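Researcher: Sequence recovery benchmark, item below. Answer with residues only.
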């Protein structure tokens, strides 16, 4: 069954969340105070309506508490973002996700009850820098402060060698969890699998070990 989501604030961030959910078959209600934004969002949501999320009555009349998840994607108006989260939690919305512009904003959003605070600019900045520092890393997920999963382009020196020969576990303290070649993913590569040009290793390990591996030529 489809989940019901409401996205408040249909700027670039809110709209991309709405669209991705909608495209995946979820029910998405778009909400914005700005009529033009609401009109522009029509193709990217199940319904879109004009409403001010700092107005408790407006939120009630939408039936906001029936939504499984509400995303507050209000941009620069920090006051409106905080007040919206506060009202949504007071009205009993189970899961509220909110975008923060900076650390202090994020702390306040948590205090008023946001279940998940995201920092899109900060996180994207970190990702871009990470990729500049290690061009072989195509993608990564931080599991904790010290551990990550990374997609790493196979270094030239490892081409045509087998996984057994590479012995990444002993040499780099890394585990290979999959090998990707373009869109094909092999989730249980055999130790005899030879590395081809274009292979991407999905490896898990400690950040310093990943960094050492990803910077091999
Ligand atoms: P982005 O950086 O994601 O493009 P914007 O600041 O352009 O962010 O977009 C935020 C959206 O949030 C705007 O469309 C704005 O009209 C909307 N918005 C701001 N305050 C409220 C509110 N109180 N209720 C509903 N929508 C709001």
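Model:
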């Amino acid at each position: 069954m489809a989940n019901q989501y409401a996205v408040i604030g249909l700027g670039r961030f809110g709209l991309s969340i709405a669209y991705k959910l909608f495209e995946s078959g979820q029910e998405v209600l778009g909400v914005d105070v700005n009529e033009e934004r609401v009109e522009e969002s029509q193709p990217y949501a199940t319904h879109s309506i004009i409403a001010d999320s700092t107005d408790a009555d407006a939120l009630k009349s939408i039936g906001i508490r029936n939504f499984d998840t509400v995303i507050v994607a209000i941009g620069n108006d920090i006051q409106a973002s905080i007040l919206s989260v506060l009202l949504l939690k007071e009205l009993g919305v189970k899961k509220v996700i909110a975008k923060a512009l900076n650390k202090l904003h994020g702390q306040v959003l948590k205090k008023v009850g946001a279940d998940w605070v995201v920092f899109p600019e900060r996180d994207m900045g970190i990702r871009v820098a990470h990729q500049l520092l290690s061009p072989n890393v195509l993608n990564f997920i931080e599991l904790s402060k010290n551990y990550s999963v990374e997609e790493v382009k196979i270094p030239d020196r490892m081409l045509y060698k087998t996984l057994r020969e590479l012995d990444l576990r002993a040499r780099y303290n890394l585990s290979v969890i999959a090998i990707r070649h373009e869109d094909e993913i092999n989730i249980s590569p055999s130790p005899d699998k030879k590395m081809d040009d274009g292979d991407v290793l999905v490896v898990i390990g400690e950040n310093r070990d990943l960094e050492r591996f990803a910077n091999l030529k």
